[in-house]
Amino acid sequence: MKQFDYVRPATVAEAVAAAAQPGAVYLAAGTNLLDLMKGGVSRPDRLVDVTHLDGLDRIETLADGSLRIGALVSNADLAHDANFAKSYPAVAEALLSGASAQLRNAATVGGNLLQRTRCAYFYDPASRCNKREAGSGCDAKDGENRGHAVLGWSESCIATHPSDFCVPLVALDAIVEIEGKGGRREIALDELHRLPGDSPDRESALKAGDLIVAVRLPPAARGFATHARYLKVRDRTSYAFAVVSAAAALRIENGKVAEARIALGGVAAKPWRARAAEDVLRGVAPTADAFQEAAWRALTDAKPSGDNAFKIELARRIVVRALTLAAAGTPARLPALPASPFASTSGAIHA
Amino acid sequence: MNHSISLTVNGARRDFVLDDPRVTLLDLLRERLHLTGTKKGCDRGQCGACTILVDGKRINSCLALAISHDGADILTIEGVARGDQLHPVQAAFIAHDGFQCGFCTPGQIMSAIGMMQEAQAGNDPERIRECMSGNLCRCGAYAGIVDAVLDAQGQMDETSQRHSA
Amino acid sequence: MPELNLTGAPAHIRHGSNIGQPLTRRDGVLKVTGQATYAADNHPPGMLFAVIAVSSIAHGRVVSLDVAAAKRHPGVVDVMTPDHKPQLAIDPEIKTNPFVFRMEALQSNEVRYANQPIAVVIADTLEAATEGAVLLAPRYETLPPLVGLDAGASFVPPVVGVGNPTENHLGDVEAGLASADKQIDATYETPPQYHNAMEPHAIVVQWDGDRLSVDMPTQGLVLSLARIAELFGIAHDKIHIRSPFLGGGFGSKGLMGGPPVLGIMAAKLVGRPIKLVLRREQMYGPVGHRAPTRQRLRIGADGEGRLTALDHHARTVSSTFDDFYEPAADASHTLYAAPAIRTSHDAVRVNTGTPLFMRAPGEATGSIALESAIDEMAWACGMDPLAFRLKNYAEVEPITGKPFSSKALRACYDQGAARFGWAKRSLQPRQMRDDAGLLVGWGMGTATFPALMFQAEARAAIRRDGSGVMEIGAHDMGQGAWTALAQIAADAVGLDIDRVTFKAGTSDLPDAGIAGGSAHTATAGAAIHSAGAAVIAKLADLATGDERSPLFGAGNAGVIARDGRLIRRDDESRGESYAEILARAGVAEVEARGTGAPNPAAMEEYAMHAHGAVFAEVKVDPELGQIRVSRMVGAFAAGRIVNPHLVKSQLFGGMIWGMSFALHEQAITDRRSGRIMNADLGEYHVPVNADVPPLDVITVEEHDPHVNALGIKGVGEIGITGSAGAVANAVWHATGVRVRRFPIRIEDLLTQS
């Protein structure tokens, strides 16, 4: 790990000023940053420790019915907040399907949003990687890329975003509150992560010094609480990143889908909102055929970036299943194996 | 640059000067405080051998900078027993053979204690398996680990019931 | 180091003989309180930290290292490179005996595999040494690497495994295949696997003049000591190695590799104690692995399901600079009674660290292929897999025709199948579902592992106070030597286990042989048994030759040792305590040595193997392809069971390794660079707790008078055999999809829904 200066600002304004310097990065729990630093992937000159800042660790319901989650709330505290889990069950399920209990206790909401790809070539400083070092090339493209992107990738980069949490969040139109040099602003989560294009090193809409201070779920997000699931296919039962995952949330009125929300994880450089698939379902009965059609629509633009064509078919099937589970209703208690196909309370898998 | 920090480690306050901000809690414990019960298996948050409780919560100490945890209350495997009196989880690990080589064991035990405090798994073996999945055991002592946790959980439930009765 | 303070087991579970009792681990309290000292837990005064820099190319040479940049980093004391290092007494490329493997000790700037050590940075702190290694920023001249099972021209190695013939023949395989009613011809692939013991390889070194003190985990104290002695040109008695606990070994800590040698060199270079611990990613290269294989099985069977021929060929790899060949096809020698058997191997060389023994080397890789193929053959014959195996049950060892020293496999099949409920299995695949609609499949595999014996010596003593001492340089890697061997020792000297001081784990004790081949308990146990008998005989001499003793004139054969007393065999009321015998003789203690060794005559006459039958149930999501094992039953016959509590754990562990072989672990090598892209524990998947279902182990009673004096066959490795195939066969039974490339992946099962 490279030597660095350690700064512990007292206020958000001080933090933003300290982090705006070249070579500076924010340190929250460090569960991803320290891993990257130990691997030589990230070699910052200055760590700006925001963990001691006041006021960023609260979960608050706002007057308009929005929920505001401070950026320093831990993944575990959020998932285990009874009101949160009741109102946004797919988000809680996604959180609890990620990493391990130890990591969830430490990892923060803001850090989860900004975690870096797990592409092995990104993680390996000896490999060429346009994301890690602009213009160096991409060794993943012709390499071992079974787990890489099938949507939104470019010749420059085929990496995926690894977050589970972001998948239901983006489906629920989450908003990110940012404190920057120019003061506070907010953007849709869907606009936070960028697709690679020809500049995969620019991963997000954040500018130097920008600090995520909160994530907000708009009032409408509560409307899906009774029909919302997250489903994650993994190479082992737990403690593994998604091969492909999906969040599905339905608002069902009079036997018809009034509104559907669908997003995919593990398929692109960002959590992938499938709006066209949502449109398919609006106003129709929640049937297997409708879900199949939505799934096809969700993956219309997908193409393999390497040895990963199976992920397209798998993603279709996961969308169908996630919709099926959502239609069956949110279980009263989160399953023993959150988001797993083997979740003991997932009920019958055929609609 | 030197940084003064203070930690409470296994109940005792420790003040010291950290000459390097790169030191993780794990390396601080092992190499500077010589509390070597906490193990380094991967150093990357992928095995759980370094699990300790920080302010009552289990975390991977390999991915935590010591300097950032100034003021924290830390419990390691060395602080779990009361003299010769083993913690129920420790005793249950012996009784149910919840280990073989023993290298992951301090992390497993700290994780189990942390899990019980989180109170998410109860006495459901499937939930215990999931909640203990952040601790790898290459010897494959998982069956004994789950049995040990169930046993210790039962004993502690009984004790707390007696106390509340 | 303080003497180990081991716990006694609760008294109520101990009665009669110590052997056979399910004692809990005597090192249990040390391990649950964090007081068990593993190598990296040592901190001699003045110690520095050494961190290895490893190659990021697989083939070529190091052109430059920025030593100056590393040394500029505060705290860096020195950088050891091929140009700046203590000279070794012999070239580490020289193989002085078959158990010596070539290692990298900075003898040149040549790079033969990725993650090869190329320099060592020594610093005041771990942080400084770690960053110093990064700052070396090596530049390379890169040559194209040899990668994979088709890397180059294949060749037939002279031997496979440890001195096994490369080819074996029985009968006429081609004629057998030609005459068969049903044939299968199937090719299976297994990936490179890495031991990944939880404890990284580590060494703490202190030189004191020409004396060397070493803390390091080793499965072979004496072999390691001999290797250090020859490399550093020092006498054996100047070296002291402590290895009281290994944080897992699985074969990777059996033989001395390069990294600990680099630690000893570094300590010599700087004249200070050194701690050197491998980083997890650095364990994917210089400390061995299980080589990949491609195995072709051709099997024929007649109209009644009897095998007519079995042809098993295995392709494997070794490194470009040394030889170890995974003896995968040898798995077909012992299990099934084919009248014609051929096993053969060939290999290619690739740019990899030299493969090595990894838990059931050959047996594990061979078993998953053979058990899959047998399952395929049973299906081709329209037979239940268990019925097919019973139809082809080997009453004598097929390849040699020798009788088995003992073989309770039929009982394993019966008891395992009954416990599992195998009789309810559908013959057709993809017939079973659970309440949630998940596909359910049942599979089985036969387990087998040879009952080996190595050489060992032990020293026993009876002290004036009537207590006993047993000394043997045995190794506890988790199998439970501190407990099981102490139980054998207690019986050997006729004392309660708490009255015996059992010493193990250091190199100054008698040679216990290597802890490998599932032979440690048998080998060390035999030495302990023999040393105990010898010391009791000496004690008996003292008593029976002394007319003041109630045992006078009883003669050695007429005396037995029990509970700290010698008593007459013909009159158990007459006897006296050890303390009384020694007090009267005025002797402080009596001591004797004993040995354990294979019995060549018995080996000539008998085939010696442990056996087992493993039954597995898997659930597979019909559309999504994710797999989970939902239960496993293993029934094993492995001779005498010294401690059922520990044996169950070892068999569980083996079964989990089998599951992992079938479903999880593989090193992924970039085919262009020859580098391993998942050299960690995040993406190199081993099972987590949630992967492991309720497991059930049955130890089947088996008495074997031939394997060794104690009748022990060993259980360390057999659990992985049979289990891997059982899981793979269960996946087929659940889905109807036969996957022949392991581990089985989600995409393999997405073909239909």
Quick overview of this protein structure:
The complex is a heterotrimer of chains A (351), B (165) and C (753). Chain A has 351 residues and is an alpha+beta fold. Helix content of chain A is 25%, strand content 19%.
Could you please describe the fold and organization of this structure?
Chain A has helices at 12-19, 33-38, 75-80, 82-87, 89-96, 101-106, 109-113, 166-171, 275-281, 288-298, 310-328; strands at 5-7, 24-27, 46-49, 59-61, 67-70, 175-180, 183-188, 211-217, 228-233, 244-253, 256-265, 272-273. Chain A has 351 residues and is of the alpha+beta class. Among the domains of chain A are: 5-49, Uridine Diphospho-n-acetylenolpyruvylglucosamine Reductase, domain 2 (2-Layer Sandwich); 224-328, CO dehydrogenase flavoprotein, C-terminal domain (Enolase-like, domain 1, 2-Layer Sandwich). In chain A, the strands form three sheets. A five-stranded antiparallel beta sheet of chain A has the order 4-5-8-6-7, with helices on one face. A four-stranded antiparallel beta sheet of chain A has the order 9-10-11-12. A three-stranded parallel beta sheet of chain A has the order 1-3-2, covered by helices on one side. In chain A, 60% of the residues are buried. The model of chain A is unreliable at 345-351 (pLDDT under 50). In chain B, α2 runs antiparallel to α5 (142-164). By secondary structure, chain B is of the alpha+beta class. Chain B is 36% helix and 15% strand. In chain B, a hairpin with a 2-residue loop joins β1 and β2. Chain B is built from five helices and five strands; from the N terminus they run ββαβββαααα. In chain C, a hairpin with a 6-residue loop joins β27 (609-620) and β28 (627-637). Chain C is globular. Chain C has three domains: 4-36 and 454-597, Aldehyde oxidase/xanthine dehydrogenase, molybdopterin binding domain (Aldehyde Oxidoreductase, domain 4); 40-144 and 208-279, Aldehyde Oxidoreductase, domain 3; 402-452 and 599-753, 2-Layer Sandwich (Aldehyde Oxidoreductase, domain 4), CATH 3.30.365. Chain C contains 15 helices and 29 strands. In chain C, the strands form seven sheets. Chain C has a seven-stranded mixed beta sheet, sandwiched between helices. In chain C, strands 9-17-16-15-10 form a five-stranded mixed beta sheet. Chain C has a five-stranded mixed beta sheet with strand order 18-19-27-28-29, with helices on both faces. Classes of the chains: A alpha+beta (351), B alpha+beta (165), C alpha+beta (753). Chain A binds chain C through residues 1-3, 40, 118, 120-121, 124-127, 139, 142-144, 146, 233-240, 243, 310, 313-314, 317-318, 320-321, 337, 340-342, 346-350, and chain C through 56-57, 73-74, 127, 130-131, 134, 435-438, 619, 621-626, 628, 663-664, 668-673, 675, 677-678, 682-683, 685, 687-691, 745-747, 750, 753.
